[in-house]
Design goal:
By secondary structure, this protein is an alpha/beta fold. About 35% of the residues lie in helices and about 20% in strands. The strands form two sheets. Strands 2-1-5-6-7 form a five-stranded parallel β-sheet, with helices on both faces. A two-stranded antiparallel ribbon has the order 3-4.
Length: about 140
């Protein structure tokens, strides 16, 4: 995959947004889905875990889909394999989400292109935990 580094322009903008959904959040502390969710919460973001396999993450209710969240997130952080991400990309676009952030390993060329074609501002090839640490 040839990387398009235009996503860098969106990182600063996305990090200023305070309402996030973490697709693939889960209650296992050793997993990135949990660590990303927790990092966002600890750094003052309102974060919602999205994973149909779990009822709660870190003591918070876990949601089946982006549509079931109590608010529309400003940023959707993807922590699922690309083959499970397409439905969430489509749902994010339908809801009018502005940013979609693919964690390393959650992106594919096809998924990035699909998100861009649906009008989402796409971030990939960087980790939200790394970007959060830079701002401390």
């Amino acid at each position: 995959m040839e990387w398009d580094y235009s996503y860098i322009d969106y990182v600063e903008e996305a990090m200023k947004r305070k309402i996030w959904a973490v697709v693939g959040a889960l209650p296992r502390e050793s997993k990135y889905g949990y660590q990303i969710y927790r990092t966002l919460k600890l750094n003052g973001y309102t974060a919602y875990p999205v994973n149909p396999k779990f009822r709660e993450v870190d003591g918070d209710p876990c949601y089946d889909s982006l549509s079931s969240l109590p608010v529309i997130p400003e940023v959707v952080d993807m922590v699922v394999p690309p083959n499970r991400g397409e439905q969430y990309v489509e749902e994010a676009a339908k809801l009018g989400v502005e940013f979609i952030w693919f964690q390393p390993g959650a992106e594919s060329e096809e998924l990035v292109e699909k998100a861009k074609n649906l009008g989402l501002k796409v971030i990939y090839n960087t980790c939200v935990m790394l970007e959060t640490d830079k701002r401390k």
